[in-house]
Amino acid sequence: MSQFFSWGALAWLLDGTLMLMVASVMIAYDWILALVAFAVSAPLGFVLHRVQSHLVKAYDSARVENAEVLTTISEIVSGAETLRLYGAGDRFAAVTKAASHRRSNSFIRAGTISAFLFPSGEVFSVLTVSSVVTVGLIRGPSSGLTAGALVGFMFLTYRFLEPIAEFTEVIDQTQTAVAGLRRVLGILEIPAGPPEPKHPHPLPPGRLGIDIEQVTFAYRSRSDDDEPPVLTDVTARIPAGQQVALVGETGSGKTTLGRLIARLADPTSGVVRIGGVPLTQVANPQLRERLVVVPQEPFLFDGSIASNLSFARPMLSVAQIEQAVLDLELGDWLEGLPEGLDTEVGQRGAALSAGERQLVALVRASLVDPDVLVLDEATSSVDALTEVRLTRALDKLASGRTTISIAHRLSTAARADRVLVLDHGRLVQDGHHDALVRIPGPYARMYEAWVAASTTSP
User: Fold this and answer.
1) Element (H, E) at 374
2) pLDDT at 115 over 80
3) Gap between the Cα atoms of 186 and 242, Å rounded
4) How would you classify the pairing of strands 402-406 and 243-248?
């Protein structure tokens, strides 16, 4: 694309202008020979159009295969440790090799098609000049066309045809640029998230409740076929300040419901309200101030713990951040860090344990001081001390706030004020933990399985 914009686009403009100017002079010089030159060279446009259509498809395919190779290599580099642990290096090397072969073949095909461009221009140049000379000789001096005039017109014909050779190269560069631009535009067209409302409604002050009204959601399909809904006709009302646990088997839709409540996606049908205002009518900046999500795998940027906390509220001082840590009763954890808040976390928080990354995420959420907290509980196990710290910090953070926990452990559900049980995308049970364990149903079965697993585990 850089080559096209630095050279190709200018060539289209200059060469096109030159051909028009020379064509005008040719008509004024000898309109009969001009028509002969135009008629013989005109089919070249059809040939170039046909080659161009195939070239567009070839370069599109080449770009797709190139992206596939880069993606495969990126995954292998990122997952190198896992591949070594499972001895799967040879298998993924074969996958990469196959992707590389497909990429090579697609580029070879595109290069083969583009190789027809330059010869086709040369062939029509020879035919055009030969036709002009032949017609000129047939007309002869009797028509007033002298030998000098014919030579002069041949010079104009060469000037007219000269840009065609460059055009063939420009077309190749253009198709490469078009293929790349399509890939870029395709990525830019992917929405980064739900759109901002054109006329946002402010949220009411004070604590906020959540209303979920007949919500159905299905993920968008890459094909024209409709994906089956992940959630179907879910309705629930969560009063302000209530702590709710979303529970269900894997694939039940609990994480998706949490994403809809946080407006990381919009329902296919139905509406989610916060404080009585539909989420689609709440400005994103205000929503992120009043509602905070603690994801299952918190993302930490390379830098210190302090830098990963301070971007949530840049105006806070180090002393205020330390106080937030103490408010969550994590002072002992902070004292145990090598450099305190200045401890480096490494890329994606690799220098910290999974539990410590979760603690950083909880502190970061507390700095925002949200009215609604959506917590996607981590599935990774942590040591006993970190588990105690997480539970203690979460209880402090959730106190007085509307909290929706996507529970992967039933111990979390047991501490909640209310449990919503999802099964195959539908809300099937709603109540307190103590009541649900006594009612035959999905929650009682999950609880019995959890108790049995806890009893038999060493």
Assistant:
1) strand 372-376
2) no
3) 42
4) parallel
Instruction: Count CB atoms within 10 A of the CB of residue 24.
Output: 11
**Measured between alpha carbons, how far is 184 from 240 in angstroms, rounded to an integer?**
44
**72, 78 contact by CB (below 8 A):** no
Worst-scoring range by mean pLDDT, 1-5, 9-13, 20-24, 322-326?
A: 1-5
Interior/surface letters 110-141, b for 16+ CB within 10 angstroms, e for the rest: beebbebbbebbeebbeebbebbbebbeeeee
Query: Which positions ≥6 away from 195 have C-beta within 8 Å?
Result: none
pLDDT digits (tens, 9 = 90+) for 260-306: 998 988 999 999 999 999 999 999 889 888 998 888 888 888 888 88
- Judged against a pLDDT cut of 90, whether residue 183 lies above it is answered with no
d(CA 225, CA 222): 8
Mean pLDDT of 231-255: 92
- Compute the 3-state secondary structure of the chain and give helix, strand, coil in percent, each to the nearest 5: 60, 15, 25
CA-CA distance, 358 to 332, in Å (whole number)?
16
Location of structure tokens 């049908």: 269
How far is residue 162's CA from residue 133's CA, in Å, rounded to a whole number?
17
If DSSP codes are grouped into helix, strand and coil, which group holds residue 447? helix
Q: How far is CA 352 from CA 305, 348, 384, 412, in A?
A: 10, 9, 16, 24
- Which 3 state secondary structure label does DSSP give 286? helix
80-97 as b/e: b if 16+ CB within 10 A = eeebeeeeeeeebeeeee
Distance of CA 316 to the CA centre of its chain: 32
Q: What dihedral angle (degrees, nearest 10) is formed by the CA atoms of 380, 383, 386, 388?
A: 100
The full set of domains in the chain, from first to last, is 2-189 (1.20.1560.10), 210-456 (3.40.50.300)
| CA dist., res. 405 & res. 258, Å (int) | 8
Strand partners, 237: 211
Query: Does pTM surpass 0.70?
Result: no
Question: Which amino acid does the sequence have at 102?
Answer: R
Q: Which residue has the tokens 């009215």?
A: 371
pLDDT band at 316 (very low <50, low <70, confident <90, very high): confident
Interaxial angle between packed helices 31-41 and 43-78, expressed in degrees from 0 to 180 and rounded to the nearest 10: 40
Rounded percentage of the chain residues whose pLDDT exceeds 70: 83
In 3D space, the residue among 256, 162, 267, 182 whose CA is nearest the CA of residue 217 turns out to be 267
Query: Greatest CA span in the chain, whole angstroms?
Result: 114
Q: Which tokens go with 209?
A: 């409740």
